[in-house]
Amino acid sequence: xxxxxxxxxxxxxxxxxxxxxxxxxxxxxxxxxxxxxxPKAELFIKEGDYVKYGQVIGMRHAAFFDQPIHATCSxxxxxxxxxxxxxxxxxxxxKFHNDFLDTKDESIHERSEEEIKKLTKEEITEIVKxxxxxxxxGSSFPTYxxxxxxEKINTILINGIECEPYINAxxxxxLEEPExxxxxxxxxxxxxxxxxxxxxxxxxxxxxxxxYHEFLKRYKDSGxxxxxxxxxxxxxxxxxxxxxxxxxxxxxxxxPSSYGVINFNVSTVLGIYDAVKYNxxxxxxxxxxxxxxxxxxxxxxxxxxxxxxxxIEQCGGYKNPDKDKVFILGGPMMGASLPSDDTICTKxxxxxxxxxxxxxxxxxxxxxxxxxxxxPVGLQPYQIMNTMKSMPVDKEKIKFLNPLxxxxxxxxxxxxxxxxxxxxxxxxxxxxxxxx
Length: 436
Fold this sequence. Notes:
Helix content: 25-40%
C-alpha cells in the first residue's frame, strides 16, 4: 500500500476528465489458467491450437463453483509463461499469438431487445454464468451466484462511487457509456423483478450527475435514479454505500440480500449487458494507468490479457527510469503491491499505479489511537497487532479481537503516525482466527 497518498498531483486528479484511449491490442495476450478464487483449471486446448475470439478454452475450478475461461483474441496458443497475477502471486498464463483478425467464436451472437425482454431470471443467470461474469470492481466474485439469491430484492444499488484515490476507470465508463449502463441495469431489474434501482456516485462528481439527470429523462418510467453519497473513503464499501443511500445498517455476517438489497459495480453492469446482449464474456475493460512514476497518466480501454509493460510504454514510459518503482494493481489502499511490472491486465484490474519508490522507516507504536479512530468496522487494530507480535500468539485473544471483520481498507496503515504496516498484521491475524 502507498503510504501518505495526500500528495497526489492535481494533474492526476484531472485524469477523470480525459477521455479513454483505445489501447492498440498487442501481438501477444496472456490469460491466467488459475486465479485467486480458482486454484485448479482444466484446459480444452493444447499447444499449437488455433482459437477464436470468445471461445471457451478451459474451465477453472473453485470450492463451490466452476468458471469458463475465454480467449480474448483469435490466434495460436503457444504454451505457458509465468507472470505476476493481480493477486500478487506468480502464476501460469497461457500465451496467445494474436492474428489481429478477431475471428469470433460461433457462440457469440446478438439478441434483439424483444428476445432479451422474454428472458427469465434463470435464463439470464445461465447466460451470466456461461460468460464467466464476475465483480469487475476488483472482487472477482461470480456474478451468477448473486443472481441465484432466493430473497425478494426491493432495491438494486449500482456502485459507481470509485472511492479510492487515483482510479478513474468507472468514472470514464459512466460518462462514455450511459446507454449501456442503463440497459444493463434494466436487465438486472428484469431478473429480480425490481423497479427501484439507484446509481450511487460521489456528490462531487457533478459531471456524472449532469449526464445521468439528462439521460434518464429518456427512461422516465424505468425506476432508475441517482443517489449522490458523501465524498469519503471507504464510501465504496458496500456496507457504507447501503447505509448512506438507503439508511440500512447491514449487520456483520449478514448478506445485503437479506435486507432486500443487492448491489453491482458499474463495470460489472456493463459486463452483464455484453453477456446478455451479445453472449460475450468480458474481453475488454477500462483501466487507469497513473502515478508519478510514468510520463503520461492515461485511461485506457484495454484488451484483457495485455501486459502491463506494454501499457506503460503507451504512457510514454517511466519518468526517472533510474529510480526504483512501486507497482500496484488496483487502488493504492486495497490494491496488490507487485515486485515488478511483469504482470498482466486481467478482467478485474481496475488500475495500475506506478510510483517512485520511497523508503519509510517504521517507528515504535505510540498508542495514539489513530488506527482505531479511522477503522470503519470499529476494530482495535493496535491491539490485534500487538497480540500478533507476542510469541507465542494467543489464538483465543486474536479470535476475541475479531480480525475477520476487517475489510482491509488500509486506513489503519495510512493513518499510523509511526509508519507501521498495521493492515499486514491484521491480514496475518485473520489466518490465526480461522484456525480451529
